[in-house]
Specification:
This protein has 2 helices and 7 strands. With about 140 residues, the protein is an alpha+beta fold. Strands 1-2-3-4-5-6-7 form a 7-stranded antiparallel β-sheet, covered by helices on one side.
Length: about 140
């Protein structure tokens, strides 16, 4: 076999091996998302529940109320104001909205192999931080 043919075949094999590694990494990331997204979702819902309870205690009466709509959606209602925050788990994202305000966090596998929630800038946030920020912003906007 000529040197040229050996180079072409060697390059082709290296490219195929590289593609196989990338494919395996993608399959592993998808497995992590499938396995751990429900856990991250529950953690987020629990963080919202805890922060609602904290706000109600600090207010001295019921200010906000969390309601589970289905296994992939919950809402937080400001009592007596008709304002409702919807939080929905859709495929690989968590979306929230109230009024004209909306936002989303995506599931992403971190460098350490853990599943994280990231915003559009790809910065990672904890469930508790998201609950605090979203609820705080909701209450600031409503007044």
């Amino acid at each position: 076999m000529s040197e040229w043919a050996e180079k072409v075949i060697s390059h082709r094999k290296a490219e195929l091996e590289k593609q196989e590694l990338q494919d395996r990494a993608l399959v592993e990331k998808q497995r992590i998302k499938r396995e751990f997204a429900p856990v991250v979702w529950r953690n987020l819902r629990n963080a919202f529940q805890l922060r609602c309870e904290e706000l109600n205690r600090a207010n001295g009466s019921k200010l906000v109320e969390l309601a589970e709509k289905n296994p992939r959606e919950f809402s937080v209602r400001i009592v007596g104001q008709g304002v409702e925050l919807a939080v929905v788990h859709q495929n690989e994202t968590i979306q929230y909205s109230y009024g004209s305000v909306s936002g989303a966090y995506s599931f992403s596998v971190g460098k350490d192999g853990s599943l994280e929630l990231v915003d559009a800038s790809r910065y990672s946030f904890t469930a508790d931080y998201i609950a605090q920020e979203v609820l705080g912003e909701l209450l600031r906007r409503v007044g």
